[in-house]
Write a structure and sequence with these properties.
331 residues, alpha/beta, Rossmann fold, 2 domains, 41% helix
């Protein structure tokens, strides 16, 4: 029987609590709305001794990711959070993290680059930088997925950076009832990080060339790791359910009332709750509508969608989009 307490907290606080439970060793941060409360709460945990970690205050997100890269190659568990223009400012180092093969976890409460509107412009622009991207629906799932995220990213079959993505303001700042696991139970699910190899030892003065020779080999390894990640995401979801009783579909996609559906809606993150109500309302009117919630945007589970369509035979999918892609249909 797991030991959990129930509290009314925001999505940002849920992520911060998960990071504390994960026993992260290095955090770097620079404030930006709506992320700031995550790292503010973590700084409190470090200051009052609840979390034994190095908290690095940097002058911007580019430096933040550089610090995370440095800590990662030293073989410690790392975390940061950013969003919107901050994520864009970190782009150069974001693209490098997957080549380092360091399992950094980043929380991203999604927002627009050009406004505070909670759309996915920021993370979609970074979808080709080599990060695993898991979109969550609620504060509870934000906590659970952050814990799963460390386990997935640190698995030696993966060793890739990972983003936990949730809607800015809608999830980040809204209070919700969240079940908080005990440290004892989390330690059973998430053991201490064991790096595949420690490539830099700060106590030694030396030069180490750690990148694999040549871009083609690096990218082949990345594709293999992303393919492996699909199974590791499923495994983490299943193992988490065995301990805590909560799972999210198969970890990649979460179906809802698709068994006899003619049409399914495809959603991500917080819009899913409203979409479920729409499905229920349409069902009451005799319309066979279902729902597929996409949790893993990277790696994208194309095979899962194909298998579900073959199994249930729905004829159409309507994608609910929250990414404002500039230039779409302009030429």
């Amino acid at each position: 029987m797991v030991k959990e307490k129930v509290e009314f907290i925001t999505g940002n606080d849920a992520v911060a609590y998960a990071v504390k439970l994960a026993r992260v060793k290095v955090i770097a941060a620079y404030p930006i709305t709506p992320q700031s409360p995550v790292t503010e709460k973590l700084s409190e945990y470090v200051a009052n001794g609840e979390l034994d970690a190095e908290f690095i205050k940097v002058e911007g997100e580019h430096s933040c990711l550089a610090a995370m890269r440095g800590a990662g190659v030293c073989g410690v568990r790392t975390f940061t959070a950013t969003c919107g223009p901050g994520l864009m400012y970190a782009h150069e180092n974001l693209e490098c993290v997957h080549r380092d093969r360091t399992p950094l976890v980043i929380a991203v409460p999604n927002r627009s680059y050009s406004s505070l509107f909670p759309d996915y412009t920021d993370s979609m622009c970074e979808a080709t930088t080599g990060f695993i991207q898991l979109f969550v629906e609620s504060a509870q799932e934000a906590l659970d997925t952050t814990l799963q995220g460390f386990r997935i990213a640190e698995d030696h079959r993966v060793l890739m950076p990972l983003m936990v993505l949730y809607d800015g303001y809608v999830t980040s700042h809204t209070g919700a009832t969240v079940r908080l696991p005990s440290q004892e139970d989390v330690d059973k699910f998430l053991p201490p990080f064991k790096p595949y190899v420690v490539r830099v030892d700060p106590s030694r003065s030396e030069y180490i060339q750690w990148e694999r020779p040549g871009v083609p080999l690096q990218e082949m390894e990345h594709e293999m790791a992303m393919t492996n990640a699909k199974e590791v995401i499923k495994e983490a979801n299943e193992e988490y359910a065995k301990i805590f009783g909560r799972s999210y579909g198969d970890g990649l996609v979460e179906p809802y009332r698709v068994e006899d559906a003619d049409v399914v809606l495809v959603t991500m993150a917080s819009m899913t709750g409203t979409a479920r109500q729409v499905v229920d309302a349409l069902r009451e009117k005799g319309k066979n509508v279902g729902l597929l919630r996409l949790r893993s945007f990277r790696p994208f589970p194309a095979e899962t969608f194909q298998e579900l369509q073959k199994k249930y035979g729905f004829r159409a999918m309507g994608v609910c989009e929250r990414d404002v892609t500039h230039g779409c249909n302009y030429g």
